[in-house]
Structures are given as C-alpha cells and as structure tokens.
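thought: fold this chain, then report.
action: predict
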Amino acid sequence: VAVKVGAYFSAFANMAMQMAETGADGLVIFNRFYQPDFDLNTLTVTPNLVLSSAYEMRTPLRWVAILYGRVPVDFAITRGVHNHEDVLKGLMAGAKVMMMASELLRHGVGRIGEVLTEMTHWMEEREYLSVAQMQGSMSQQNVAEPGAFERANYMKVLRSWRDDPTGILIR
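observation:
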C-alpha cells in the first residue's frame, strides 16, 4: 500500500515513520490537492487546473533525500517532474518512482520516450549501468555535505545571492 501525502505536516519525518510502522510500503510525495478558484463576476466556485513547474519538485526532492534510508518505504515524487534531469535527480535523492503528468498534458505521451532516451544517454555518458546504482546516491546519508538539506543552510543560501540592478537575483 502506498500513501499519497500532502506537504502540510508540521513534523513530516515523524508522520512518514508512523505510516511505515503501520504498514505503508510507499509514500507518494507530495500530492497536489485540488484548488478551486472563485469567479468574481458570477460568484461561483470554478475549477482551475494549474500545471506544475519544475520548481515544484524541490520540496519533494529535499524530503525524499532526507528520508531515504531512514524510513523503510519506497518513495514516489509526484510534483514538478518535467524532463530527464528531474527524473535523475529524484532517483538520486532516493525515489523509486517519478510521476509525470503536467509535461504529458503539455506535450503528449510521446514525451515519455524522449525522457527515457535522454535519461539513458546521460547514464551512458557517465557509465551508470543501472538506475539502482544511482538510487539514493544524493540522499542526505550519501552526500559530502549532509547539512545542505537542513534549515540552518538557509542563511548560507541567502548570503550566496546578491541583488542585480535589473531586479534579477544572480549568483
């Protein structure tokens, strides 16, 4: 049994462990909940599908990387997966499944083959023999700087940016 979970837990690591201890085999991180809008002209509730962006994968990527090897479940990332790089990042964080929807709605199901081809090419260039070889390789337990996943690293990230006169943040 896999459990779809949202991102709105105050102690997500604890909740993930509780789900594993009660029998969950997998966690789908993070489910996007339906978010209707209001039409101010008709005063009605209206459906409004907003497709994901690659940026949305950062939160699930971080959590999978933190939980991988600590919570005994398989992980699926279901938000912000758009290209082969997103798939590879998720696998390296520790995900076993990468779920793609918005990209397929935009470009059709043929996009799956393109992503797999690009992924295979990337792996061959770097001499990866299998997906299993890379799974979890960038998790918090396996990176040189585990603190990069922690909140304390936030100040370091902020100090690494400066304002550009154009209003664009640059590194």
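thought: worth noting. The mean pLDDT is 90.
final: tokens above.
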